């Protein structure tokens, strides 16, 4: 009986010690999966251009031009009331004002500094001198400051139909 217990014990030790799992670990080829939260229409991050590339595209647009495009950037600011707009960094102290198609979705109010991919229409809007002077007057600027406004201002605008935001 002792011999039978001894054989069983030795056998179980041999079997468990031989149960080694093969693990193929390739640390240099780790795949990093980025998770996104999706807003608006379903989009992917594939074929998105960089913020710097987008800035160059904006610089080549004229008022009235529209460009269907997808680009990646960082949020500088989000509307703190509803999340109904956001400003995206384009580099070189430029940014794009992003609104959402048909007011159909909003961004989280705490999304500042998050990385996003936006898909939609890029365009440039021109604010006339009269309108700029009117805004300056409404803001309480002096007559001297208002008189210094002599050129229209161009703004980079974007209507997004879909947004991905890194978690």
Task: Give your account of this protein's structure.
The structure is a single chain. This protein is of the alpha+beta class and 167 residues long. It is built from four helices and six strands. The chain has a five-stranded mixed barrel. The radius of gyration is 28 Å and the shape is elongated.
Write the layout of secondary structure elements.
Blueprint lengths: L1 H17 L17 E5 L10 H9 L6 E13 L6 E7 L2 E7 L14 E13 L1 H10 L4 H5 L5 E14 L1
Number of helical segments?
4
Q: What's the overall geometry?
A: elongated
On the 0 to 100 scale, the average pLDDT is 84
Rg measurement, Å: 28 Å
The helix/strand class is alpha+beta
Helix content: 10-25%
Number of strands: 6
Spatially, the strands of the biggest sheet line up as 2-3-4-6-5
Order of helices and strands: HEHEEEEHHE
Keywords, separated by commas or semicolons:
4 helices, alpha+beta, 167 residues, 35% strand, single chain, disordered N terminus
Q: TL;DR?
A:
The chain is 25% helix and 35% strand.
């Amino acid at each position: 009986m002792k011999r039978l217990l001894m054989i069983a014990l030795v056998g179980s030790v041999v079997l468990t010690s031989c149960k080694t799992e093969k693990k193929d670990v390739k640390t240099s080829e780790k795949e990093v999966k980025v998770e996104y939260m999706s807003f608006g229409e379903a989009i992917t991050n594939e074929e998105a251009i960089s913020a710097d590339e987008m800035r160059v595209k904006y610089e080549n647009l004229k008022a009235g031009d529209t460009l269907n495009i997808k680009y990646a950037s960082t949020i500088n600011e989000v509307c703190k009331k509803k999340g109904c707009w956001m400003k995206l960094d384009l580099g070189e102290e430029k940014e794009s004002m992003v609104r959402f198609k048909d007011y159909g979705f909003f961004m989280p109010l705490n999304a500042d500094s998050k990385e996003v991919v936006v898909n939609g229409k890029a365009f440039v809007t021109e604010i006339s001198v009269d309108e700029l002077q009117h805004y300056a007057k409404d803001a309480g600027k002096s007559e001297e400051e208002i008189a210094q406004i002599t050129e229209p201002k161009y703004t980079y605008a974007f209507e997004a139909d879909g947004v991905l935001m890194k978690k």
